[in-house]
Design goal:
The complex is a heterodimer of chains A (346) and B (618). With 346 residues, chain A is of the alpha+beta class. Chain A is built from eight helices and ten strands. The longest helix of chain B has 37 residues. The relative contact order of chain B is 0.10. The N terminus and C terminus of chain B are likely disordered. Classes of the chains: A alpha+beta (346), B mainly alpha (618). The complex binds protoporphyrin IX containing FE and copper (II) ion (CU). Protoporphyrin IX containing FE (HEM) binds next to helix 3, helix 4, helix 14 and helix 16 of chain B.
Chain lengths: 346, 618
């Protein structure tokens, strides 16, 4: 897997990169020729006609029409060539093929979140199958960001309230750097992500396992799961009513009948693993159980609920970044009793 | 009168007022008026001078005050740049945090653009020489001129306030919605830009009226020096474009204060709209920054090549054409911003169409030397630096104007390098060259030629080391406005940072030279360079209070050396002070050209610097 760049440009890792590069080099060579020409005459004239004595007198020059016309016409023709070439490459690099695999990209301060057609999400790592056209549909949740992969020669702003798209097809398996190029505040220069270009089989496996979000702080993992596990179908986070109770105001809310009488970590965890252990007044026990969530994912959801209720502190983030996972056995999960699972406790 | 001038406090006692060749003393030296009586001491002695300066309506003094003001902001912004570069010496945090860094590069950008480069040449050199070049006493509205200076100072003070109250971290472009959200001093800074904009508009109006209405007899449009043409074109842009940025700043401020959804998507606004507004001003503003430099370079190339500027008419008219068409290309800053692809294509095309004439000017300037008599003085060295650097800036402009290529290069260091080659390699080189050129006229003292040449070399070297590396960084993918970076960019960042120290040193040499010359420089003759425009041929150095003893009569173009100095063995380069006068004929011969009027008539006011000391060659 040799990916050699050049002095001027990083390796060409997408199918459209060579076109951009060819044009880049064309302009570069043209520019060097012009620059050398200008410098040559600059130095030559400055030296040849330098004043040697006070008596030096300029010669009255009658400008040659042809010289003037030529240096108007030639550059004009050259830039037209460049324009049309750039135009062509812009169009082919701008319009995604119809069969492109679509992935949604959300830029946030300061991470990139990816959402795949099957609902899998990942943060900071974009997995794509190699050799297939990929279309990214991008937006942002806060300020402008710009999605840039130097090796693919693609870049586009991610704008709140609007979709923008780019596409690329990766030529070789490997990892590629994603950068943010629209200034977005404090951590703008660390808003990195990685593109992992893998073969179709690996990609499918990865999708199936839900793309483990191992490096994410817990609260962000929880936020991801909120949509990924479709919690958002029933629970709002803004207080609006839904099929289930909103998560706004949930943390430490009174929950008569539970161990502590309030919604704490244990209460939430139990409600996810065994939704019918407690039923909130006024709601049907309509929630499915989520027995497959890992401990880390459960902790993430708890963290997320704390976070949106303002109970997630900087210390928590720090701890979360150390990926200190609360061990499962410290949480006292009531064992669901068989009956309760079948018959809604109404 | 001459006794009072000699004792005026502007100069220290140890440095006597410059001695002028007999018959060439300024009658009312603008620098020294009014002279307090010699026996007054202390504050009472300084006060009248200070008061005379701060309430002056003399365009020359206003020009000098502008010069000090913009130099101050250039220095502050330059120090910020050196800090930014020093922080980038290594990835990670060296001595600034990410937030401090973001404020620092914003400070650098905002100050360089709004407080330095936009007012720089028009405010200082323009104010000083425009009326003299036109052969008149002052600009059309002298009081408005003073007012514009104070408006500028007011704007600048608000900017300083904004910086002192925590600074601002949006970058000089103030893009929404970031600028809607950040809790830094966006409000005062937008007000600063708004207020400073008025100074720009007022100066523009003043220049337009002056150029239209107040030219010396015989000074037709075809005989206007190219610097005047350039200032004319710039003034048009200033008057037409600046209100747009003013309005944009007001809208941004209103949005922050009142939460109206204009730009902020959270309120239903459109963030891309802001970019359209912003660049609708800021692209033409690029011409506000570079056109005056074109004017200066034309003067320098003409004077020091002793040759008609090649393609005079093309340069003059294309400046105006570029200024007008410059309003149609703003979208080339937005190829990846979410504007429609069709707009991008149209903007790219128009950009190329108006880019060509700027490029062609370079060729005209180079050909001006052809068969001339090229005098390689310090100002000329800066002019040659300009030609070299600006060509690189222009050619890389083709790169970033080309659709597909710009997608890769946009918002990387390639763009940073490109605009520094244009703004610093272009405008700042021209401004320094122009300062070396007009310094003797402004202050009546020569700068050191030797140190001037050394500084030109150091600046040229440091500049390329600092910014050429950034082209490579950028095309390799290094984004701009990055506080830290990936390890693969480390080496080039180090080279660039070390280059910035050479650049800083070179600029320091220029500053040192200026200060030195004010006290120790040789007195300047009226026309040390043997130039042919009115401020040299018809005014003393420094000029009299009212510029001219009598209104000049213009009978030839600004670079008609052939007509001016034909046939008498006169070299006119001011270097004949050793008495050899080139081919042996010497003496302050009145210009032997009947077209200029009878020699006797002009004797008093024409000063070609004939019997004058050599410009200091220490
Ligand atoms: C001592 C000479 C200078 C040095 C070392 C220097 C260096 C820099 C650096 C390192 C940046 C930050 C680039 C980034 O992170 O994107 C920058 C930005 C900038 N510079 Fe300079 N610069 C110098 C002179 C100038 C001059 C003379 C001007 C214009 C008159 C200028 C205008 C700007 C602007 C407009 C920006 C963009 C700021 C922003 O991104 O908001 N600079 N410069
Ligand atoms: Cu970003």
């Amino acid at each position: 897997m040799e990916r050699e760049g050049t002095f001027w440009l990083p390796p060409q890792s997408s199918t459209t990169a060579h076109e951009v590069d060819a044009l880049f080099y064309f302009i570069l060579v043209m520019s060097v020729i012009i620059q050398v020409g200008v410098t040559y005459y600059l130095v030559k004239f400055a030296w040849k006609y330098r004043r040697r004595s006070h008596a030096d007198r300029p010669v009255d020059v009658h400008p040659s029409k042809w010289l003037e016309i030529s240096w108007v016409v030639v550059p004009t023709l050259l830039v037209f060539v460049v324009f049309f070439w750039g135009f062509k490459a812009f169009v082919s690099a701008g319009i995604a093929p119809d069969n492109a695999y679509q992935i949604h990209v959300v830029g946030k301060k300061w991470l990139w979140e990816f959402e795949y057609p099957d609902g899998t999400t990942s943060v900071g790592d974009l997995y794509v199958p190699v050799g297939e056209p990929i279309e990214l549909i991008m937006t942002s949740t806060d300020v402008l960001h710009s999605f840039y992969v130097p090796e693919f020669r693609v870049k586009h702003d991610a704008i709140p309230n609007r979709y923008t798209t780019i596409w690329f097809e990766v030529k070789e398996e490997g990892e590629y750097q994603v950068l943010c190029t629209e200034y977005c505040g404090t951590a703008h220069s660390e808003m990195y992500a990685k593109v992992h270009a893998v073969d179709r089989g690996t990609f499918n496996d990865w999708l199936r396992t839900g793309g483990g979000n191992d490096n994410l702080p817990l609260n962000q993992l929880g936020e991801l799961l909120y949509t990924k596990q479709a919690c958002n179908n029933c629970h709002s986070v803004d207080g609006s009513s839904g099929i289930g109770p909103s998560w706004q105001g949930l943390w430490q809310a009174a929950r008569p009948g539970s161990d502590e009488g309030v919604a704490d970590a244990n209460y939430i965890r139990t409600s996810i693993v065994n939704p019918n252990a407690y039923i909130v007044e006024g709601y049907q026990g309509a929630m499915p159980a989520y027995p497959n969530l890992t401990d880390r994912e459960l902790n993430g959801l708890v963290a997320y609920i704390r976070d949106i209720n303002g109970a997630w502190t900087a210390a928590d983030s720090a701890a979360a970044n150390d990926s200190t996972v609360v061990p499962a056995d410290t949480l006292d999960v009531p064992t669901p009793d068989g009956d309760a699972e079948l018959a809604p406790a109404d | 009168m001459s006794t009072t001038t000699a004792a005026a406090p502007v100069r220290t006692q140890s440095a006597p007022a410059p001695k002028h060749p007999p018959g060439h003393e300024p009658v009312h030296n603008y620098l020294l008026e009014p002279g307090p009586s010699p026996d007054v001491r202390g504050l009472a002695r300084v006060w009248p001078t200070v008061k005379a300066w701060v309430t002056t309506v003399d365009h020359k003094r206003i020009g000098v005050m502008y010069l000090f003001a913009v130099s101050f902001f250039f220095a502050v912004a330059g120090i910020a740049a050196l800090l930014v570069r020093a922080e980038l010496m290594n990835p990670g945090s060296d001595f600034l945090t990410a937030d401090e860094y973001n404020r620092m590069f914003t400070l650098h950008g905002v100050m360089m653009v709004f407080l330095f480069i936009v007012p720089s040449i028009p405010g200082s050199l323009g104010n000083f020489v425009l009326p003299i070049m036109l052969g008149v006493k002052d600009v059309a509205f002298p009081k408005l001129n003073l007012a514009s200076f104070y408006v500028f100072i007011a704007g600048a003070s608000i900017a300083v306030y904004a910086i002192l109250s925590g600074g601002i971290d949006t970058g000089w472009t103030f893009y929404t919605p970031y600028s809607d959200e950040t809790n830094t001093a966006v409000l005062p800074m937008t007000m600063a830009v708004f207020v400073a904009g008025f100074a720009s508009i007022l100066t523009g109006i003043n220049f337009i009226v002056t150029i239209h209405k107040m030219r010396a007899p015989g000074l037709t449009w075809n005989r206007l020096p190219l610097f005047i043409w350039a200032l004319y074109a710039v003034s048009i842009v200033q008057v037409l474009a600046t209100p747009v940025v003013g309005i944009t700043m007001i809208l941004l401020a209103m949005e922050r204060l009142l939460n109206i959804g204009i730009f902020d998507p959270a309120l239903g606004g459109d963030p891309v709209l802001f970019q359209h507004f912003f660049w609708f001003y800021s692209h033409p503003a690029v011409y506000i920054m570079i056109l005056p430099a074109f004017g200066v370079i034309s003067e320098l190339m003409g004077t020091f090549s002793r040759q008609k500027v090649f393609g005079y008419r093309a340069i003059a008219l294309s400046s105006v054409a570029i200024a007008m068409l410059g309003f149609l290309v703003w979208g080339h800053h937005m190829f990846v911003s979410g504007q429609s692809p069709l707009s991008s294509i149209v903007f790219s095309l128009i950009t190329f169409l108006i880019g060509v004439p700027s490029g062609i000017k370079v060729l005209n300037w180079v050909w001006t030397m052809y068969r001339g008599s090229v005098w390689l003085t310090t100002p000329m060295l800066y002019a040659l630096s300009f030609l070299f650097l600006f060509t690189i800036g222009g050619l890389t402009g083709i790169m970033v104007g080309t659709l597909a290529v710009d997608v890769h290069l946009h918002d990387t260091y390639f763009v940073v390098a490109h605009f520094h080659y244009v703004m610093m390699g272009g405008t700042v080189m021209a401004m320094i060259g122009g300062l070396f050129y007009w310094w003797p006229k402004m202050f009546g003292r020569m700068m050191s030629e030797t140190w001037g040449r050394i500084s030109a070399g150091v600046v040229f070297f440091g500049f390329n080391m600092t910014f050429f590396t950034q082209f490579i960084l950028g095309s390799q993918g290094m984004p701009r406005r990055y506080f830290t970076y990936l390890p693969e960019y480390h080496d080039l960042h180090q080279v660039s940072t070390i280059g910035s120290w050479f650049l800083g040193l070179g600029l320091l040499l220029v500053l040192g030279n200026m200060i030195w010359s004010l006290f120790k420089g040789k007195p300047a003759p009226g026309n040390p360079w043997g130039a042919a425009t009115l401020e040299w041929t018809h005014a003393t150095s420094p000029p009299d209070h009212h510029n001219f003893h009598r209104t000049p009569l213009v009978t030839h173009g600004p670079y008609d050396y052939g007509v001016l100095f034909s046939g008498d063995g006169y070299s006119g380069d001011g270097a004949g002070g050793d008495g050899s006068g080139g081919d042996g004929s010497r003496g302050p011969a009145p210009i032997p050209n009947p077209e200029l009027g009878a020699p006797q008539e002009m004797e008093k006011s024409i000063d070609l610097g004939l019997a004058q000391p050599k410009p200091s060659r220490d």
